[in-house]
């Protein structure tokens, strides 16, 4: 029957190399038990590939991430079966752990933002420890960040900007969530173009790594959907006719300097200056200067 072994995978550094550890906790039982541990990874959606197996008396099993049989970007699980030490006939039902993703993750995994000047925090974390054999305590992985507009034929700037071009993931003790993490902010570019909703990707690439495990690894991109927002215009032209943001029209024949518009959310305003451009019979003012 099921023994409620509850296998779980955690990352660990063993002699400077990244390992995954499968632990399980059976209830006390007599006679003593042995355990068959099968390690496997998802080689493609719905397809599993066995990478290691062992029979052990211990309540744990290790497998090394060597960059060949087990690579960054793999989702790994372990399946544990218990059986009486003196016979193989009395076996428990096999119990499988949750899949453990080994590599770089982004939180959130995708973003939906708008051209509203807001900053959105993107967390970049490593689910495995940073291994730097032969280096001092300032061990880290440097990730180069870049953006790509998937509708590249459209003119204009990229649809998103990042607060940094690269981040360092510093070696820290592993927690339940990560073994290293950093944050950047993502902002949509307000381009004043009615170009519809556009999709961009954020890419992170490890740079300057001698370690095969990291050198051959490219994390999965982050998909960012930017929602287009309509822009408004206001005008002051000729002698001066004024059209406001909401389409209201009027004239201003006064001479002097005037406040044309002011933002209510940030320190920004536009002033216009008008001078006398009329004749003796009519008083008319015309635009002669602007300051933003």
From TrEMBL:
<protein>
    <submittedName>
        <fullName>VWDE protein</fullName>
    </submittedName>
</protein>
<dbReference type="GO" id="GO:0005576">
    <property type="term" value="C:extracellular region"/>
</dbReference>
<dbReference type="InterPro" id="IPR050969">
    <property type="entry name" value="Dev_Signal_Modulators"/>
</dbReference>
<dbReference type="Pfam" id="PF25776">
    <property type="entry name" value="Ig_VWDE"/>
</dbReference>
<feature type="domain" description="VWFD">
    <location>
        <begin position="232"/>
        <end position="292"/>
    </location>
</feature>
<keyword id="KW-1015">Disulfide bond</keyword>
<dbReference type="InterPro" id="IPR001846">
    <property type="entry name" value="VWF_type-D"/>
</dbReference>
<dbReference type="InterPro" id="IPR057885">
    <property type="entry name" value="Ig_VWDE"/>
</dbReference>
<keyword id="KW-0732">Signal</keyword>
<dbReference type="GO" id="GO:0009986">
    <property type="term" value="C:cell surface"/>
</dbReference>
<dbReference type="GO" id="GO:0005102">
    <property type="term" value="F:signaling receptor binding"/>
</dbReference>
């Amino acid at each position: 029957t099921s023994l409620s072994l509850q296998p779980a995978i955690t990352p660990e550094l063993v002699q400077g190399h990244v390992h995954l550890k499968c632990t399980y906790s059976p209830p006390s039982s007599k006679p003593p038990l042995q355990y068959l541990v099968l390690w496997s990874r998802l080689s493609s959606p719905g397809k599993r590939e066995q990478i290691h197996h062992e029979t052990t008396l211990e309540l744990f099993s290790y497998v090394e991430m060597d960059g060949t049989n087990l690579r960054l970007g793999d989702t790994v699980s372990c399946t544990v079966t218990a059986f009486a030490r003196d016979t193989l006939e009395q076996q428990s039902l096999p119990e499988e752990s949750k899949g453990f993703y080994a590599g770089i993750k982004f939180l959130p995994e995708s973003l939906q933002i708008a051209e509203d000047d807001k900053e959105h925090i993107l967390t970049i974390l490593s689910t495995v420890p940073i291994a730097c054999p032969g280096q001092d305590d300032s061990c880290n992985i440097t990730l180069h960040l870049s953006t790509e507009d998937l509708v590249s034929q459209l003119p204009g700037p990229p649809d998103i900007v990042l607060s940094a071009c690269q981040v360092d993931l510093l070696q820290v003790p592993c927690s339940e969530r990560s073994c290293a993490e950093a944050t950047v902010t993502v902002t949509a570019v307000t381009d004043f173009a009615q170009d519809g909703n556009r999709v961009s990707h954020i890419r992170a690439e490890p740079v300057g790594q001698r370690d095969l495990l990291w050198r051959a690894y490219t994390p999965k991109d982050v998909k960012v959907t930017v929602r287009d927002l309509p822009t408004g215009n206001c005008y002051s032209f000729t002698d001066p006719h004024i059209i406001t943001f909401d389409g209201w029209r009027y004239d201003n024949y006064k001479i002097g300097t005037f406040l044309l518009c002011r933002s209510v959310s940030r320190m920004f305003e536009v002033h216009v200056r008008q001078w006398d451009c009329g004749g003796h019979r009519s008083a008319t003012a015309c635009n002669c200067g602007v300051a933003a």
